[in-house]
């Protein structure tokens, strides 16, 4: 029997069957051939900028593998809680664009490759959705928006990531917001869910405040909710969303470099992402710091995959103005 003779439509393609891609979506590693895709998933497997535990170079593959459990067909996913179907073929076309290249022992060139990759995805008119990698990758992915209209960064993290430099290293995973704050096209930063002693030094905290970072510590976020925590931003604001998995509680996200107790629950995170999707114009996002060697049960990768799909579903549901029409056609560019 040849391939032609087989009825491919009858295949079940269960989550453990077949090649791995993000949520089982089509793969396209030629970034010149992405036309028509709304979202391009890009892995950036760099972990050499981590100041403590490494392993996030295996993050993109682990999140892809975990996302297969949530793979969906053209009919999308029905959420009974709001009686809505998300991620249907009419709403959004997601393509897995593979990974940016990494040069071992050379973090700076690897980061430059990530910038080049994200620019290619933007030039193709897709919204880059990036899987890290340690958090240093965000200074590279945000840099790719330099010839676009200004962006505000919504940064969800246990830490401030505003370190200027340590021992001459200014591109570590504790510095992405500091480096982003220096970019002319970044109009501001909101940091949600920081907490605990030692998550920031007094000097770096003062620098973040001097820059104008809007900070909502985790316990205030929990008290007032997602809507009030983002009320300072105007509706339709162009935002890039950077999500460090260590924003979540180590009981549900143990597989990360620098854990911090008292973090977000799944529903708290989902509520924040839904608020962002409903009110703002999301032009890019990343999920960083998933470290599979510290995630023996795979629960951290599963959480990242689930939240990524929740977020994409909320952004593209019903063709929200400012997302599909704008980002997908590249009209958001200057
Ligand atoms: Mn971080």
TrEMBL record:
GO terms for molecular function: agmatinase activity; metal ion binding. PROSITE patterns: ARGINASE_1, ARGINASE_2. Keywords: Hydrolase, Manganese, Metal-binding. Gene3D superfamilies: Ureohydrolase domain. Its cofactor is Mn(2+). PANTHER family: ARGINASE/AGMATINASE, GUANIDINO ACID HYDROLASE, MITOCHONDRIAL. This is Agmatinase. Belongs to the arginase family. Agmatinase subfamily. CDD domains: Agmatinase_like_1 (cd11589). GO terms for biological process: putrescine biosynthetic process from arginine, via agmatine. Binds 2 manganese ions per subunit. Mn(2+) binds at residues 135, 157, 159, 161, 244, 246.
């Amino acid at each position: 029997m040849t391939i032609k003779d087989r009825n491919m439509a009858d295949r079940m393609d269960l989550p453990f069957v077949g090649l791995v891609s993000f949520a089982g979506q089509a793969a396209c590693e030629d970034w010149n051939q992405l036309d028509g895709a709304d979202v391009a998933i890009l892995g950036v497997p760099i972990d050499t900028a981590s100041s403590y535990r490494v392993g996030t170079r295996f993050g993109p593959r682990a999140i892809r593998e975990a996302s297969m459990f949530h793979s969906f067909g053209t009919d999308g996913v029905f959420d009974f809680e709001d009686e809505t179907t998300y991620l249907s073929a009419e709403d959004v076309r997601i393509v897995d664009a593979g990974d940016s290249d990494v040069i071992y022992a050379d973090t700076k060139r690897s980061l430059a490759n990530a910038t080049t990759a994200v620019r290619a995805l933007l030039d193709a008119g897709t919204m880059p959705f990036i899987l890290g990698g340690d958090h240093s990758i965000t200074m590279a992915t945000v840099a790719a928006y330099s010839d676009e209209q200004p962006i505000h960064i919504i940064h969800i993290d246990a830490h401030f990531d505003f370190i200027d430099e340590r021992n001459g290293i200014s591109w570590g995973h504790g510095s992405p917001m500091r480096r982003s704050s220096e970019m002319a096209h970044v109009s501001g930063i909101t940091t949600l869910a920081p907490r605990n002693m030692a998550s920031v030094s007094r000097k770096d905290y003062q620098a973040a405040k001097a820059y104008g970072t809007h900070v909502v510590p985790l316990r205030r976020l929990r008290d007032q909710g997602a809507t009030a925590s983002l009320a300072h931003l105007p509706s339709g604001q162009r935002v890039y969303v950077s999500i460090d998995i260590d924003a979540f509680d180590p009981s549900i996200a143990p597989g990360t470099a620098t854990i911090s107790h008292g973090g977000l629950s799944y529903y708290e995170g989902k509520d924040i992402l839904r608020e962002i999707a409903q009110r703002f114009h999301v032009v890019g996002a990343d999920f960083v710091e998933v470290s599979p060697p510290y995630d023996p049960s795979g629960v951290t990768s599963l959480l990242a995959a689930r939240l990524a799909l929740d977020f994409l579903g909320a952004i593209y549901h019903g063709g929200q103005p400012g997302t599909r029409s704008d980002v997908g056609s590249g009209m958001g560019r200057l």
